[in-house]
Amino acid sequence: MTGGKWTFVRISHKEVSIDEPAAISPWYEIFSLPDSSYPNQMSECDHIRHMHKTKNLSGGFTLTNLLRPEARIDSCISLLCSRLATLSTTQRTIPLYKWLHYLGFDVLGEMTFSESFGFLQEGRDIRHAIRITDELATYVAVMGYLPWVHKFLLGNPIIGLLGLRPNQHILDTAVSVQEARREKWDARLNILEQWNWRYHAVKGKGGMEKREIVGAALANIGAGVGAVNTVMQGLFYFLIRNKEWMEKVREEVDQAHREGRLSWPAVQYREAVGLRVVDACYKETLRLFPTIAFALLPIVPTKTTVSVNFWTLHRNTSIFGADAESYNPASWLTGTPETLRNREKFLMPFGVGYNSCPGQNVAVIEVLKTVVTLLRRFEFDQREPEKKENQWK
Ligand code: HEM
């Protein structure tokens, strides 16, 4: 169905999805996880309170603050490299997606609490956190449409009282780090501490409650780990299948290495961010795999929900060209300044407006550092050639 210049698709009896960037706004109580007693900015449906939360939390997500614990992120990436190096001598096939997921948990643990969750160290899915997080993603996708059912399930405070919360050990870490923060010498080098500082600075004047700070820390893990992992997997997915681009990226990384521009053992963010081909591949991955595949941002006071799907928007040929379905990082490297500006403007994997993703700096730091460090040290190929055929060749 087309109305004026906008394309509308009815995706359920009460929801219409729009392929149009101008039609964007908020949503969902359901993101209060692991249960309703830990509200976060995402689950805050009141616009004004949501904006206060966003303001209170924003200091934790500045590039300067996030790069303070860079040495600790480096330790996680170095540990990943040594694990992969060891495995590559004994195993023919390594499930990269799993190791990237372990890395994602440990890095976000370090950035948020100065505490790794120990996934890389143990090399396994501790207390099924990854499996549970995946299941929670499905739960959220379904229950977002059935909020009244959610109230009887994870939205029910009794779940917490009975100790049945999913991902209890992530919650335990958040609470115990919050309690032990005074004893940690490097407690200032993390997101949580920035929020604690803000808590004291604006106490009683629109600041957050302690419980909300723990809720926000949990939201970081819940919203961030899977999303960053998806992008990182996507980046390797496309490079492995597009040899030409794998070679171009490698050339760029190898040259920077030969010229002594990349630190060892882990590449620094400021070194990785200047690599143009890597950056183009990152953007192209975000365009084709914007991680959130369902339509976002229900709006309007009528009984019908209106939403925008970035997956569709990013394939809009009037913005991204006739080959919008294809993987083509060159489109971020060539073209008139106007075309490039337009592409950048409508690349929206992190959402837009007041409830857009606060974790985009976290994502770019983790993805660029990891990908460049791994590509400098390892060669990657797919072990199941029969799965190589796909639409993004
Ligand atoms: C490439 C990785 C990521 C992508 C593509 C992504 C995407 C998004 C999108 C599209 C939204 C908006 C949802 C909406 O409109 O309701 C969002 C919200 C959010 N994201 Fe991310 N995200 C990523 C990484 C992260 C990371 C690493 C963190 C935390 C460290 C994070 C934390 C959040 C939070 C807390 C919200 C809720 C914001 C609010 O409602 O005000 N995200 N993300």
Automatic annotation (TrEMBL):
Heme binds at C357. One of its GO terms (molecular function) is oxidoreductase activity, acting on paired donors, with incorporation or reduction of molecular oxygen. Its cofactor is heme. It comes from the Eukaryota. The chain crosses the membrane at residues 217-240. Keywords: Heme, Iron, Membrane, Metal-binding, Transmembrane, Transmembrane helix. SUPFAM superfamilies: Cytochrome P450 (SSF48264). PANTHER family: CYTOCHROME P450 (PTHR24305), P450, PUTATIVE (EUROFUNG)-RELATED (PTHR24305:SF232). Belongs to the cytochrome P450 family. This is Cytochrome P450.
